[in-house]
From TrEMBL:
NCBIfam families attached to this UniProt entry: PRK07480.1
Record-stated family: Belongs to the class-III pyridoxal-phosphate-dependent aminotransferase family.
Residues forming coiled coils: none
Known cofactor(s): pyridoxal 5'-phosphate
Class in the EC hierarchy, top level: transferase
Record InterPro entries: Aminotrans_3, Aminotrans_3_PPA_site, PyrdxlP-dep_Trfase, PyrdxlP-dep_Trfase_major, PyrdxlP-dep_Trfase_small
PROSITE patterns documented for this protein: AA_TRANSFER_CLASS_3
Record-given protein name: Putrescine aminotransferase
EC code(s) of this entry: 2.6.1.-
Transport found in the keyword field: no
Claim: Transferase is one of the keywords in the record: yes
Length: 451
Protein backbone atom coordinates (compact mmCIF):
# COMPACT_ATOMS: atom_id res chain seq x y z
CA UNK A 1 0.00 0.00 0.00
CA UNK A 2 1.16 3.50 -0.74
CA UNK A 3 1.40 5.29 2.61
CA UNK A 4 -0.14 8.74 2.14
CA UNK A 5 -2.28 11.25 4.03
CA UNK A 6 -5.30 9.53 2.51
CA UNK A 7 -4.98 6.33 4.53
CA UNK A 8 -7.36 6.10 7.51
CA UNK A 9 -5.81 7.34 10.75
CA UNK A 10 -6.03 3.93 12.43
CA UNK A 11 -4.06 2.34 9.61
CA UNK A 12 -1.35 5.00 9.75
CA UNK A 13 -1.13 4.61 13.52
CA UNK A 14 -0.85 0.84 13.26
CA UNK A 15 1.98 1.08 10.72
CA UNK A 16 3.65 3.72 12.85
CA UNK A 17 3.49 1.61 16.01
CA UNK A 18 4.72 -1.44 14.10
CA UNK A 19 7.78 0.13 12.48
CA UNK A 20 8.60 3.56 13.85
CA UNK A 21 10.55 3.93 17.10
CA UNK A 22 9.77 7.30 18.71
CA UNK A 23 12.03 9.36 20.97
CA UNK A 24 10.91 9.63 24.61
CA UNK A 25 7.83 7.41 24.01
CA UNK A 26 6.99 3.83 24.99
CA UNK A 27 5.74 1.26 22.50
CA UNK A 28 2.87 0.57 24.92
CA UNK A 29 1.72 4.19 24.65
CA UNK A 30 1.78 3.94 20.85
CA UNK A 31 -0.05 0.62 20.77
CA UNK A 32 -2.67 1.69 23.30
CA UNK A 33 -3.60 4.98 21.73
CA UNK A 34 -1.66 5.57 18.56
CA UNK A 35 0.37 8.66 17.83
CA UNK A 36 -1.39 11.79 16.67
CA UNK A 37 -0.72 12.02 12.94
CA UNK A 38 0.11 15.57 11.86
CA UNK A 39 -0.47 16.06 8.16
CA UNK A 40 0.14 19.75 7.47
CA UNK A 41 0.61 23.10 9.18
CA UNK A 42 0.24 26.81 8.50
CA UNK A 43 1.17 29.73 10.73
CA UNK A 44 0.63 28.59 14.33
CA UNK A 45 -1.85 25.83 13.47
CA UNK A 46 -1.22 22.13 12.88
CA UNK A 47 -3.74 19.95 11.08
CA UNK A 48 -4.04 16.30 12.09
CA UNK A 49 -5.28 13.34 10.07
CA UNK A 50 -8.77 13.79 11.53
CA UNK A 51 -8.92 17.36 10.28
CA UNK A 52 -8.49 19.00 13.71
CA UNK A 53 -6.84 22.42 13.70
CA UNK A 54 -4.48 22.43 16.65
CA UNK A 55 -2.86 25.59 18.00
CA UNK A 56 0.82 24.77 18.48
CA UNK A 57 1.87 26.69 21.58
CA UNK A 58 5.21 24.81 21.54
CA UNK A 59 6.42 25.80 18.05
CA UNK A 60 7.13 22.12 17.43
CA UNK A 61 9.98 21.52 19.85
CA UNK A 62 10.63 25.22 20.62
CA UNK A 63 11.89 25.74 17.11
CA UNK A 64 9.35 26.88 14.50
CA UNK A 65 9.90 30.54 15.35
CA UNK A 66 8.68 31.85 11.99
CA UNK A 67 5.57 29.67 12.05
CA UNK A 68 4.73 26.93 9.59
CA UNK A 69 4.24 27.03 5.85
CA UNK A 70 6.45 29.93 4.73
CA UNK A 71 6.74 29.28 0.99
CA UNK A 72 10.03 31.20 0.65
CA UNK A 73 11.77 28.60 2.77
CA UNK A 74 10.72 25.77 0.49
CA UNK A 75 11.66 27.76 -2.59
CA UNK A 76 15.16 28.44 -1.29
CA UNK A 77 15.59 24.77 -0.36
CA UNK A 78 14.49 23.64 -3.82
CA UNK A 79 16.78 26.14 -5.54
CA UNK A 80 19.76 25.05 -3.45
CA UNK A 81 19.00 21.36 -4.00
CA UNK A 82 19.10 21.90 -7.73
CA UNK A 83 22.22 24.06 -7.68
CA UNK A 84 24.36 22.20 -5.13
CA UNK A 85 22.50 19.64 -3.00
CA UNK A 86 25.56 18.59 -1.07
CA UNK A 87 29.17 19.24 -0.64
CA UNK A 88 31.26 18.96 2.47
CA UNK A 89 33.32 21.57 4.27
CA UNK A 90 36.15 19.20 5.22
CA UNK A 91 39.70 19.22 3.81
CA UNK A 92 39.84 22.79 2.57
CA UNK A 93 36.58 23.04 0.64
CA UNK A 94 33.68 25.37 1.22
CA UNK A 95 30.53 26.64 -0.49
CA UNK A 96 28.53 29.83 -0.71
CA UNK A 97 25.64 28.93 1.67
CA UNK A 98 28.09 28.12 4.50
CA UNK A 99 30.13 31.27 3.83
CA UNK A 100 27.07 33.50 3.69
CA UNK A 101 25.49 32.06 6.84
CA UNK A 102 28.72 32.27 8.85
CA UNK A 103 29.23 35.91 7.93
CA UNK A 104 25.60 36.69 8.79
CA UNK A 105 25.81 34.94 12.15
CA UNK A 106 28.99 36.85 12.97
CA UNK A 107 27.00 40.06 12.41
CA UNK A 108 24.06 39.02 14.59
CA UNK A 109 25.96 37.60 17.56
CA UNK A 110 27.74 39.67 20.23
CA UNK A 111 30.87 41.38 18.86
CA UNK A 112 33.53 38.87 19.94
CA UNK A 113 31.70 35.77 18.62
CA UNK A 114 32.66 35.55 14.97
CA UNK A 115 33.45 31.94 14.08
CA UNK A 116 30.98 29.13 13.43
CA UNK A 117 31.57 25.37 13.57
CA UNK A 118 28.51 23.64 12.11
CA UNK A 119 26.64 20.55 13.22
CA UNK A 120 23.37 18.92 12.27
CA UNK A 121 21.72 19.49 15.65
CA UNK A 122 22.08 20.96 19.11
CA UNK A 123 23.32 17.64 20.51
CA UNK A 124 26.11 17.46 17.96
CA UNK A 125 27.02 21.09 18.55
CA UNK A 126 27.36 20.48 22.29
CA UNK A 127 29.52 17.43 21.56
CA UNK A 128 31.69 19.78 19.51
CA UNK A 129 31.86 22.19 22.45
CA UNK A 130 32.90 19.49 24.88
CA UNK A 131 35.81 18.48 22.69
CA UNK A 132 36.68 22.00 21.59
CA UNK A 133 37.10 23.44 25.09
CA UNK A 134 39.36 20.51 26.00
CA UNK A 135 41.44 20.92 22.84
CA UNK A 136 41.61 24.67 23.50
CA UNK A 137 43.19 24.19 26.93
CA UNK A 138 45.41 21.34 25.74
CA UNK A 139 46.74 23.53 22.94
CA UNK A 140 47.44 26.21 25.54
CA UNK A 141 49.57 23.71 27.45
CA UNK A 142 46.96 22.75 30.06
CA UNK A 143 45.63 19.33 29.01
CA UNK A 144 44.45 18.61 32.56
CA UNK A 145 42.03 21.57 32.38
CA UNK A 146 39.33 19.28 31.04
CA UNK A 147 36.45 19.04 33.50
CA UNK A 148 33.16 20.64 32.58
CA UNK A 149 30.54 21.85 35.03
CA UNK A 150 26.86 21.90 34.16
CA UNK A 151 23.62 21.91 36.11
CA UNK A 152 21.12 19.40 37.40
CA UNK A 153 18.05 19.21 35.20
CA UNK A 154 19.83 20.96 32.30
CA UNK A 155 19.11 19.73 28.78
CA UNK A 156 21.94 19.84 26.25
CA UNK A 157 20.99 16.95 23.95
CA UNK A 158 20.70 13.19 23.69
CA UNK A 159 24.07 11.95 22.47
CA UNK A 160 26.40 10.47 25.07
CA UNK A 161 28.44 13.66 25.27
CA UNK A 162 25.60 16.17 25.27
CA UNK A 163 23.38 13.94 27.41
CA UNK A 164 26.21 13.79 29.96
CA UNK A 165 26.45 17.57 29.89
CA UNK A 166 22.72 17.58 30.52
CA UNK A 167 21.54 16.97 34.04
CA UNK A 168 18.46 14.82 33.49
CA UNK A 169 18.65 11.90 35.93
CA UNK A 170 16.13 9.82 33.98
CA UNK A 171 18.46 10.05 30.97
CA UNK A 172 21.57 9.34 33.04
CA UNK A 173 19.87 6.15 34.25
CA UNK A 174 20.17 4.65 30.76
CA UNK A 175 23.14 3.88 28.57
CA UNK A 176 26.19 4.92 30.53
CA UNK A 177 25.83 8.62 31.17
CA UNK A 178 27.28 10.85 32.45
CA UNK A 179 30.74 10.16 31.10
CA UNK A 180 33.61 11.01 33.47
CA UNK A 181 34.77 14.59 33.84
CA UNK A 182 31.34 16.22 33.89
CA UNK A 183 29.83 17.61 37.09
CA UNK A 184 26.42 19.02 37.93
CA UNK A 185 25.56 21.79 40.37
CA UNK A 186 22.11 22.99 41.46
CA UNK A 187 19.72 24.87 39.22
CA UNK A 188 18.41 28.36 39.99
CA UNK A 189 14.81 27.20 40.36
CA UNK A 190 13.58 29.48 43.11
CA UNK A 191 9.91 28.49 42.87
CA UNK A 192 10.61 24.79 43.41
CA UNK A 193 13.73 24.87 45.56
CA UNK A 194 14.16 28.37 46.99
CA UNK A 195 12.49 27.68 50.35
CA UNK A 196 12.43 30.78 52.55
CA UNK A 197 15.16 32.61 50.63
CA UNK A 198 14.34 35.61 48.48
CA UNK A 199 14.83 34.89 44.78
CA UNK A 200 17.90 37.16 44.81
CA UNK A 201 19.53 35.35 47.75
CA UNK A 202 18.75 32.01 46.18
CA UNK A 203 20.10 33.00 42.75
CA UNK A 204 23.36 34.09 44.35
CA UNK A 205 23.64 30.93 46.43
CA UNK A 206 23.07 28.69 43.41
CA UNK A 207 25.67 30.60 41.38
CA UNK A 208 28.14 30.25 44.23
CA UNK A 209 27.83 26.48 43.97
CA UNK A 210 29.90 26.94 40.81
CA UNK A 211 32.73 28.50 42.82
CA UNK A 212 32.54 25.68 45.37
CA UNK A 213 32.71 23.05 42.63
CA UNK A 214 35.64 24.80 40.91
CA UNK A 215 37.54 24.95 44.20
CA UNK A 216 36.75 21.29 44.91
CA UNK A 217 38.07 20.20 41.48
CA UNK A 218 40.88 22.76 41.35
CA UNK A 219 40.53 25.66 38.91
CA UNK A 220 43.50 24.29 36.95
CA UNK A 221 41.33 21.26 36.09
CA UNK A 222 38.14 23.03 35.00
CA UNK A 223 37.72 23.83 31.31
CA UNK A 224 34.23 25.28 31.11
CA UNK A 225 30.80 25.86 32.57
CA UNK A 226 27.77 25.30 30.35
CA UNK A 227 24.24 26.60 30.93
CA UNK A 228 21.10 27.58 29.08
CA UNK A 229 20.39 31.30 29.68
CA UNK A 230 16.87 30.15 30.60
CA UNK A 231 16.61 26.39 31.21
CA UNK A 232 14.04 25.19 28.71
CA UNK A 233 13.34 21.47 28.85
CA UNK A 234 14.01 21.58 32.60
CA UNK A 235 10.77 23.56 32.93
CA UNK A 236 11.47 27.15 31.77
CA UNK A 237 13.49 28.10 34.80
CA UNK A 238 14.08 31.83 34.64
CA UNK A 239 17.00 32.54 36.97
CA UNK A 240 16.80 35.31 39.58
CA UNK A 241 18.56 38.52 38.47
CA UNK A 242 21.55 37.81 40.71
CA UNK A 243 22.39 34.48 39.11
CA UNK A 244 24.10 35.08 35.77
CA UNK A 245 26.28 38.06 36.76
CA UNK A 246 27.71 35.93 39.59
CA UNK A 247 28.30 32.98 37.24
CA UNK A 248 30.11 35.29 34.83
CA UNK A 249 32.24 36.74 37.63
CA UNK A 250 33.24 33.27 38.85
CA UNK A 251 34.11 32.02 35.34
CA UNK A 252 36.34 35.06 34.77
CA UNK A 253 38.00 34.76 38.17
CA UNK A 254 39.02 31.13 37.61
CA UNK A 255 39.68 31.28 33.87
CA UNK A 256 36.80 28.91 33.13
CA UNK A 257 35.18 29.22 29.69
CA UNK A 258 31.49 30.07 29.66
CA UNK A 259 29.29 28.21 27.18
CA UNK A 260 25.76 29.56 26.73
CA UNK A 261 23.53 26.90 25.22
CA UNK A 262 21.25 29.07 23.08
CA UNK A 263 19.54 26.19 21.28
CA UNK A 264 16.17 27.36 22.61
CA UNK A 265 16.98 30.91 23.74
CA UNK A 266 18.68 31.97 20.49
CA UNK A 267 17.02 33.77 17.60
CA UNK A 268 14.46 35.81 19.46
CA UNK A 269 12.92 33.41 21.96
CA UNK A 270 13.76 35.58 24.99
CA UNK A 271 13.08 38.82 23.10
CA UNK A 272 16.65 39.53 21.94
CA UNK A 273 18.64 37.76 19.26
CA UNK A 274 20.34 35.74 21.99
CA UNK A 275 19.49 34.84 25.57
CA UNK A 276 22.95 35.91 26.71
CA UNK A 277 21.97 39.48 25.77
CA UNK A 278 18.77 39.17 27.82
CA UNK A 279 20.78 37.87 30.79
CA UNK A 280 23.60 40.39 30.31
CA UNK A 281 26.41 37.84 29.97
CA UNK A 282 29.35 37.48 27.61
CA UNK A 283 29.92 33.81 26.83
CA UNK A 284 32.98 32.40 25.06
CA UNK A 285 30.89 29.95 23.04
CA UNK A 286 27.22 29.80 22.17
CA UNK A 287 25.40 26.69 20.98
CA UNK A 288 22.77 27.23 18.30
CA UNK A 289 20.23 25.02 16.49
CA UNK A 290 16.38 24.98 16.41
CA UNK A 291 15.47 28.66 15.69
CA UNK A 292 18.49 29.02 13.42
CA UNK A 293 16.36 27.52 10.65
CA UNK A 294 13.00 27.79 12.44
CA UNK A 295 13.17 24.00 12.36
CA UNK A 296 12.70 23.88 8.57
CA UNK A 297 16.05 22.11 8.12
CA UNK A 298 18.30 20.31 10.62
CA UNK A 299 21.24 22.57 11.40
CA UNK A 300 23.11 23.59 14.51
CA UNK A 301 26.50 24.90 15.46
CA UNK A 302 28.91 26.43 17.90
CA UNK A 303 29.78 30.10 17.58
CA UNK A 304 33.08 30.77 19.26
CA UNK A 305 35.10 33.78 20.34
CA UNK A 306 38.00 35.18 18.33
CA UNK A 307 40.36 33.95 21.02
CA UNK A 308 39.14 30.34 20.90
CA UNK A 309 39.05 30.31 17.10
CA UNK A 310 42.65 31.49 16.96
CA UNK A 311 43.80 28.57 19.12
CA UNK A 312 41.62 25.94 17.43
CA UNK A 313 42.46 27.12 13.91
CA UNK A 314 46.17 26.92 14.73
CA UNK A 315 45.88 23.15 15.14
CA UNK A 316 43.94 20.57 13.17
CA UNK A 317 40.74 19.97 15.15
CA UNK A 318 39.99 16.34 14.27
CA UNK A 319 36.26 16.72 14.47
CA UNK A 320 33.33 17.31 12.12
CA UNK A 321 30.16 15.86 10.70
CA UNK A 322 29.32 14.86 7.12
CA UNK A 323 26.56 17.44 7.28
CA UNK A 324 28.58 20.25 8.94
CA UNK A 325 27.38 23.34 7.08
CA UNK A 326 25.11 21.33 4.75
CA UNK A 327 24.37 23.68 1.83
CA UNK A 328 20.59 23.17 1.77
CA UNK A 329 20.29 23.59 5.53
CA UNK A 330 22.60 26.61 5.49
CA UNK A 331 20.58 28.24 2.68
CA UNK A 332 17.33 27.61 4.55
CA UNK A 333 18.83 29.06 7.75
CA UNK A 334 20.00 32.11 5.83
CA UNK A 335 16.50 32.61 4.42
CA UNK A 336 15.08 32.30 7.93
CA UNK A 337 17.43 35.03 9.17
CA UNK A 338 16.59 37.20 6.15
CA UNK A 339 12.86 36.94 6.86
CA UNK A 340 13.35 37.55 10.57
CA UNK A 341 15.17 40.78 9.79
CA UNK A 342 13.02 41.93 6.87
CA UNK A 343 9.84 41.43 8.89
CA UNK A 344 11.47 42.66 12.07
CA UNK A 345 10.23 39.70 14.09
CA UNK A 346 12.04 40.97 17.18
CA UNK A 347 9.96 44.17 17.16
CA UNK A 348 6.82 42.07 16.75
CA UNK A 349 7.88 40.06 19.81
CA UNK A 350 8.74 43.15 21.79
CA UNK A 351 5.75 45.32 20.91
CA UNK A 352 2.99 42.83 20.17
CA UNK A 353 3.48 39.13 20.86
CA UNK A 354 5.28 39.16 24.23
CA UNK A 355 2.97 41.79 25.84
CA UNK A 356 -0.10 39.85 24.66
CA UNK A 357 1.35 36.52 25.81
CA UNK A 358 2.34 37.94 29.18
CA UNK A 359 -1.15 39.35 29.72
CA UNK A 360 -2.61 35.95 28.84
CA UNK A 361 -0.23 34.24 31.25
CA UNK A 362 -1.25 36.59 34.05
CA UNK A 363 -4.86 35.51 33.46
CA UNK A 364 -3.90 31.82 33.47
CA UNK A 365 -1.76 32.46 36.57
CA UNK A 366 -4.94 33.29 38.49
CA UNK A 367 -6.26 29.78 37.93
CA UNK A 368 -6.32 27.89 41.28
CA UNK A 369 -4.19 25.11 39.79
CA UNK A 370 -1.39 27.40 38.61
CA UNK A 371 1.33 28.14 41.16
CA UNK A 372 3.15 30.93 39.36
CA UNK A 373 4.11 32.23 35.93
CA UNK A 374 7.72 31.77 34.81
CA UNK A 375 8.42 33.77 31.69
CA UNK A 376 11.11 35.28 29.54
CA UNK A 377 10.02 36.78 26.24
CA UNK A 378 8.20 34.05 24.34
CA UNK A 379 8.97 31.11 26.61
CA UNK A 380 7.02 30.38 29.76
CA UNK A 381 5.91 27.72 32.18
CA UNK A 382 2.98 27.35 34.53
CA UNK A 383 3.82 25.04 37.45
CA UNK A 384 0.68 23.25 38.63
CA UNK A 385 0.20 23.04 42.38
CA UNK A 386 -2.33 21.82 44.91
CA UNK A 387 -1.61 24.92 47.02
CA UNK A 388 -0.36 28.18 45.54
CA UNK A 389 0.76 29.96 48.71
CA UNK A 390 3.03 27.20 49.99
CA UNK A 391 4.35 26.36 46.50
CA UNK A 392 3.37 22.74 47.23
CA UNK A 393 3.95 19.87 44.82
CA UNK A 394 1.46 17.15 44.01
CA UNK A 395 2.02 13.95 45.95
CA UNK A 396 3.07 10.71 44.29
CA UNK A 397 4.57 10.23 40.87
CA UNK A 398 5.71 13.67 39.65
CA UNK A 399 4.12 14.67 36.40
CA UNK A 400 0.78 12.85 36.57
CA UNK A 401 -1.21 16.08 36.81
CA UNK A 402 0.87 17.74 34.09
CA UNK A 403 0.32 14.71 31.88
CA UNK A 404 -3.42 14.92 32.47
CA UNK A 405 -3.41 18.62 31.61
CA UNK A 406 -1.46 17.94 28.41
CA UNK A 407 -4.08 15.37 27.41
CA UNK A 408 -6.87 17.88 28.07
CA UNK A 409 -4.97 20.40 25.93
CA UNK A 410 -4.81 17.86 23.09
CA UNK A 411 -8.53 17.22 23.45
CA UNK A 412 -9.02 21.00 23.17
CA UNK A 413 -6.87 21.29 20.04
CA UNK A 414 -3.95 22.89 21.83
CA UNK A 415 -0.35 21.75 22.19
CA UNK A 416 1.17 22.60 25.55
CA UNK A 417 3.93 20.30 26.67
CA UNK A 418 4.36 19.21 30.27
CA UNK A 419 7.63 18.85 32.14
CA UNK A 420 6.63 17.03 35.29
CA UNK A 421 3.77 19.12 36.62
CA UNK A 422 4.77 22.24 34.69
CA UNK A 423 2.93 23.28 31.57
CA UNK A 424 5.25 24.73 28.95
CA UNK A 425 4.52 27.48 26.44
CA UNK A 426 6.84 28.45 23.58
CA UNK A 427 4.74 29.45 20.57
CA UNK A 428 5.96 30.61 17.16
CA UNK A 429 7.29 34.16 17.57
CA UNK A 430 4.92 35.39 14.85
CA UNK A 431 1.81 34.54 16.89
CA UNK A 432 -0.81 37.32 16.89
CA UNK A 433 -2.91 38.67 19.80
CA UNK A 434 -6.01 37.04 18.27
CA UNK A 435 -4.25 33.68 18.22
CA UNK A 436 -3.11 34.25 21.80
CA UNK A 437 -6.78 34.73 22.74
CA UNK A 438 -7.54 31.33 21.25
CA UNK A 439 -4.61 29.92 23.23
CA UNK A 440 -5.93 31.43 26.49
CA UNK A 441 -9.41 30.06 25.94
CA UNK A 442 -8.22 26.54 25.16
CA UNK A 443 -5.65 26.55 27.96
CA UNK A 444 -8.29 27.67 30.47
CA UNK A 445 -10.58 24.86 29.36
CA UNK A 446 -7.74 22.36 29.81
CA UNK A 447 -6.88 23.71 33.26
CA UNK A 448 -10.54 23.62 34.31
CA UNK A 449 -10.85 20.03 33.11
CA UNK A 450 -7.69 19.07 35.05
CA UNK A 451 -8.73 20.85 38.27
N1 LIG B 1 20.37 22.27 23.94
C1 LIG B 1 19.17 22.71 24.36
C2 LIG B 1 19.10 23.88 25.28
C3 LIG B 1 18.01 22.09 23.91
O1 LIG B 1 16.82 22.51 24.35
C4 LIG B 1 18.13 21.02 23.01
C5 LIG B 1 16.91 20.34 22.49
O2 LIG B 1 15.83 20.50 22.99
C6 LIG B 1 19.39 20.59 22.63
C7 LIG B 1 20.50 21.25 23.11
C8 LIG B 1 19.58 19.43 21.71
O3 LIG B 1 19.28 19.79 20.43
P1 LIG B 1 18.91 18.66 19.35
O4 LIG B 1 17.63 18.04 19.80
O5 LIG B 1 18.80 19.47 18.07
O6 LIG B 1 20.02 17.71 19.29
Amino acid sequence: TLVTNHLPTAELQALDAAHHMHPFTTGDELNAKGARVITRAKGVYLTDSEGNEILDAMAGLWCVNLGYGRPEMGQVAARQMNELPYYNTFFQTTHVPAIALSAELAKLTPAHLNHVFYAGSGSEANDTNLRMVRVYWAEKGQPQKSHVISRKNAYHGSSIGSGSLGGMTYMHAQGGMPIPGIHHIGQPDWWAEGGDHTPEEFGLARAQELEEKILELGAENVAAFIGEPVQGAGGVIVPPSTYWPEIQRICKKYDVLLIADEVICGFGRTGNWFGCETMGITPDIITIAKGLSSGYAPIGGSIVSDEIAEVINACEFNHGYTYSGHPVCAAVAMENLRIMQEEDILSHVHNVAAPALHAALETLGEHPLVGTVNKSGMMASLPLTPHKESRAKFAGEGGAVGYMCREHCFANSLVMRHVGDRMIISPPLVITPEEIEVFTKRATQALDATY
